[in-house]
Write a structure and sequence with these properties.
Layout: H1 68-71, H2 96-187, H3 189-202, H4 214-272, H5 297-388, H6 390-403, H7 415-476, H8 483-486
């Protein structure tokens, strides 16, 4: 509130809005405003002297320590009623009881603060000692854990190095076996080409000699055996290439894991030897909140163990594959050698049969030529006999023709007439029988000539077949790759 000015004609103004926390929390004047008189403007004609006794009577209240803000809650400056200031020099805000209570409160608060400070000092000293021991213990445990970690890394490093050496040796052994298999596969091309050329040459046989004989069957079997061996070799060669790729992949994983282990060992060993007095230590704010880990000890050990197990599995598969390839090379070499010998035996037997057939054909051809000569002589004799029957036939027919000129009754069928007729018939029958015999002889001669031609052609066929089998085929089959070559050592 504001005081009314000295002139009696002055009017009261509206009160200013005061802050809610005008006084300390121990006391407030909020209660002094609860029973104030309502605002009444003073009339200009009302005049009173400005004296101590002319004050406005206020309600007699006892000051309290309630906060001033409670009395003004919910009130805005616009809602507060204006009042006439009644503050004078004879009236104060607090009572003596308030003053004593305030001092006691301050003493008590000061004592509580000192006790709290002393308790804080003792707790702080004890906490500093405890934290020092805890920090030291934690650092020792961390150093111990790092040492154990370094030992674990060294153990797995040694395991990786051992397994890597074993894998490199197995890979080199499998590479040598693959080269042997490639050489053996290349050596099978020559026998296959020889067998195919033999079949091609034998296709040049003529006539009846184009027979599906035992030699041809054995040659087809040899081609099938060689191709079967080549297919198995190629299949195992593909397996060897795939296994080498698997070995190299496992080796790459081992090498990469070993490099990582070496880097981790270098870092953890450096961390293990770091001390509070070491050089190079520094603050790295927030590094503990960065979780860059991607594994736990179990998964870390399992990762390396899986790599080693994979390498061991690949090594076992590689060793088994090498054994299979070795057995395959020995088996294929034996199969090709056995079939090569079977074909040669079949060729030998066939050549012997061919030579015997050729000899027999030559014998039959000589006999046929002799018989042709004899039948030609016989044909010539038949022809001469037919020519010899011509004059008697002419005589008999001339006689019969002359006797047809006899006159009248002289045309008598006498014995001479009958005999002449019979003679002509006999001569005709003789000529016909000789001509038939001549035709038979000529047919026989034709048959003999045909037989001669057949024999001569067959002889040429046999000679051609014998030349193909004995000279061309057996000439190529005089050599065959050795067992050492077939198993890939050379």
């Amino acid at each position: 509130m504001e005081l009314v000015g000295c002139p009696l004609t002055a009017t009261c103004a509206h009160p200013r809005s005061t802050p809610t926390k005008f006084l300390p929390a121990i006391s407030t004047m909020a209660s002094s405003y609860k029973n104030r008189f309502p605002y009444h403007p003073l009339p200009q004609s009302f005049s009173l002297p400005w004296m101590a006794r002319a004050y406005y009577k206020t309600a007699a209240i006892n000051p309290t320590l309630a906060p001033f803000s409670k009395s003004s809650q919910g009130l805005t400056p616009s809602k507060m009623l204006p009042f006439v200031s009644n503050r004078t020099t004879l009236f104060t805000r607090y009572t003596p009881d308030d003053w004593y209570r305030s001092n006691l409160t301050n003493y008590k608060e000061s004592e509580i603060s000192r006790q709290n400070a002393e308790r804080l000092r003792v707790d702080t000293s004890r906490m500093i000692q405890d934290k020092y021991q805890q920090t030291k213990k934690t650092q020792v445990e961390s150093t111990k854990n790092l040492g154990e970690r370094v030992n674990d890394i060294e153990f797995w490093k040694s395991e990786l190095c051992h397994e890597l050496d074993e894998m490199i040796g197995e890979t080199n052994a499998l590479t040598d076996m693959k080269k042997r298999l490639e050489r053996a596969l290349a050596e099978t091309e020559a026998p296959l080409q020889v067998a195919q050329e033999c079949l091609l040459h034998r296709e040049k046989r003529m006539g009846i000699d184009l027979v599906h004989d035992d030699v041809e069957k054995q040659l087809f079997t040899e081609v099938d055996v060689i191709r079967s061996c080549q297919e198995r070799m190629q299949r195992y060669l593909d397996k060897a290439k795939a296994q080498l790729a698997s070995n190299r992949a496992a080796q790459h994983e081992l090498e990469r894991d070993l490099v990582n282990k070496q880097a981790a060992h270098r870092i953890d060993d450096k961390c293990h030897h770091l001390r509070n007095t070491s050089d190079g230590i520094s603050y790295y704010r927030g590094v503990e909140r960065v979780d860059a880990t991607i594994s736990v000890p179990e998964s870390w050990a399992k990762f390396t163990d899986d790599n080693i197990l994979r390498s061991q599995s690949e090594r076992a598969a590689s060793a088994k594959l090498r054994d299979n390839i070795e057995n395959l090379l020995v088996m294929t070499a034996n199969e090709m050698w056995r079939q090569f010998n079977r074909v040669n035996v079949a060729f030998t037997n066939r050549i012997a049969e061919m030579a015997d057939a050729k000899s027999k054909i030559q014998t039959h051809l000589a006999k046929t030529l002799q018989e042709i000569f004899q039948i030609e002589m016989n044909i010539e004799a038949i022809r001469k006999a037919i020519r010899d029957k011509g004059p008697p036939l002419k005589v008999a027919q001339t006689r019969l023709d002359e006797r047809t000129r006899r006159p009248n009754v002289e045309l008598c069928r006498d014995t001479a007439q009958l005999r002449l007729v019979n003679e002509v018939h006999e001569i005709d029958e003789t000529i016909q029988s000789l001509q038939q015999r001549l035709r038979d002889a000529e047919d026989t001669l034709q048959m003999l000539v045909h037989a001669k031609s057949v024999l001569e052609h067959d002889l040429a066929v046999k000679a051609n077949s014998l030349f193909i089998d004995q000279e061309k085929c057996m000439g190529m089959r005089k050599t065959f790759p050795s067992t050492a070559r077939l198993v890939g050592y050379v």
